[in-house]
Write a structure and sequence with these properties.
6-stranded parallel sheet, globular, about 210 residues, DNA polymerase, domain 1, 2 domains, alpha/beta, Rossmann fold
Amino acid sequence: MLFIFDWDGTLCDSKEKITLSMQMAAQDVGWEPLEDYKIHNIIGLGLPEAIRSLYPSIDQSDHQRLRDAYANRFVELDLAKPSLLFPGVEQGLQYLKEEGHHLAIATGKSRKGLDRIFSAMNLNNTFHATRCADETASKPNPLMLEELLEYFSVSSQDAVMIGDTEYDMEMAQRINMPRIAVSYGAHHISRLRQYNPALCMDEFSELLDWNSIK
């Protein structure tokens, strides 16, 4: 089976770092930082789409200034205190891989950002394929999922999307792919339940007991 994972808030405990980075970036460009909940809401989107959602009236110059400031702040914070995987993720991924399943990532992160954190966490050989928002369409457009299905030559029914946001659930639903919601990420589980996930997980280890693993 093909397991497609979101990154931030699903495998990696990075919600608060993303939030603080965006708030610090706003201050860097001379703006008032937004409340936590507003930033939590855009986690999962590509960075350009996230900024447009948070600041819909800014021009392209300010957009680029904030984008650069955010990227710098996130790397700065991550180098000072590296992000960690959620409990059970490392062991769970290893188990699924040993059982012969394919593992993939579909993320709103940039390719540069994902490659950097994979190198820092020694995960370069963990996943069989990855898709980032800056090399395909941002969530909730399902293009990155369709590209992964084509790469592995499998149907949507032989794959599952695991994520923590409505964007993950919506893009999977749009191509009739089973989806699994996690309750410990950016969006409240009540929002994710609206997309009829096959499973709602409070801990990553629950995935290994899912009765639909093929």
